[in-house]
Amino acid sequence: MLQQILLHNYFNNRVLDYLTFILILIAGIIAIQIIKKYVLKSLAKWAQNSKNPLDDFIIATVKRNILPLLYYGVFYVSTQSLTLARIIVNGIRNLGVAFAVYFGIKLLMEVVVYLLESVWLNDEENSSKIKAIKGIVAVVKVLLWGFALVLFLDNIGVKISALVAGLGIGGIAVALAAQTILGDLFSYFIIFFDRPFELGDSIVIDSFKGTVEYIGIKTTRLRSVDGEQVIISNKDLTNSKLRNFKRMERRRVAFTIGVAYETKLESLKEIPGIISDIISNIDKTELDRVHFASYGDYSLGFDVVYYVLDKDYKRYMDIQQEINFKIKEEFEKRSIRFAYPTQNIYINSNNHS
Questions:
Q1: What is the CATH number that goes with domain 184-244?
Q2: Phi-psi label, residue 122: left if phi above 0, alpha if psi -120 to 50, beta otherwise
Q3: Which member of 204, 313, 329, 349 lies 3.0 to 4.6 Å from 243 by CB, making a disulfide possible if both were Cys?
Q4: CA distance 261 to 177
C-alpha cells in the first residue's frame, strides 16, 4: 500500500520524487543553519578578539552574500530530483543567474568600498576623502550594474551582440558629446588618487586664488579671498599649474629697502647687521641674507631675504609688519633716512656782458 502511494504519479513525478525533493531541501537548510550557527558564530567570536578588521569584513560579507546563494543552491539541487516543465526549468535557471549576478556584483561592490576606505581613509575621519569615495563608488556602481545587466541578459539567451551593434553608432555620438564630461570625470579620479589638494587647502591656479570648499565629479569650487565662489572644471585643474599653499612648510620673503644717497659710509655698513639682528630675534623666522645690492636712481638699495617658518599668511604679515616697525625705529635712532624720489636742479649762471 505504502509502495503504491510512493510510486503514484502526480504531474510527471512520483510521490517518492516529491519526498526526495523535500528531504534534500530540509537537509540542505539544516546544514546551512549548522554552518551559520556554529561555524560562522565561532569565527565571529574569534574575529572579535582579532585586531585585524579584515576578519570582521569577511565574515559579514559571507553572511550577506554567500549564505543567500547557498540557500538557492540547496533549492536548485533539490529540484534535480523532479521532472519539471521546460518553462519551469528555464525559470529556475534564470532565477539562479539573477541571484548569482546580483549577489556577485553586491559582493564586488562591498570589496571595492572596503578597499577604498581601508587604503585611502586609513581610519581617518577626513570629510573630503569620504565625499570623494562616495563619488567614486557612485561611478563604480553604475559601471558594475551596467555590466551585470549585460551579463544577465546574455545568460538568459538575449542576443546582446545585435543590441550592442545597434547602439554602436548612437554610442559613438553620445561619447563624442560627452567627452568633456568624461574628461572631467577622469580628472576627478586623478584628483582623488593623486591628491594634489584637499578640502580646506588654499590654492592658486592661473589668476584665481582661494580655498577649496567642494570637490565634485565634474567641477571643483573655490572660495576666493574676496568672498565670491569660483567654479573650475576638474579637467582645467589637472591641466594647469597649481600652487598649494597649505602644504608649504616655509615661506620665502624678499624685499628691498632704499636709503638716501647722503647716508654716511659707516651707517651703510651698519644696516646689514641691524636688519639681521631684527629678523633673527623674531620667532618663526630664519634669516637668509642682507646685502647692499645696488645704486638706484634715487636710493642705495639693500636686498633682504628671510624665511617664515609657518604656512599661515596672517602670521607672515604679522612678522613682516613687526620687521618694518623695528627697522623704522632703528633707522630713526641712527638718523638714517629712507630714500624717496627726489630731483635736484643745478643752475649754472654765466654772465655775458
A1: 2.30.30.60
A2: left
A3: 204
A4: 67
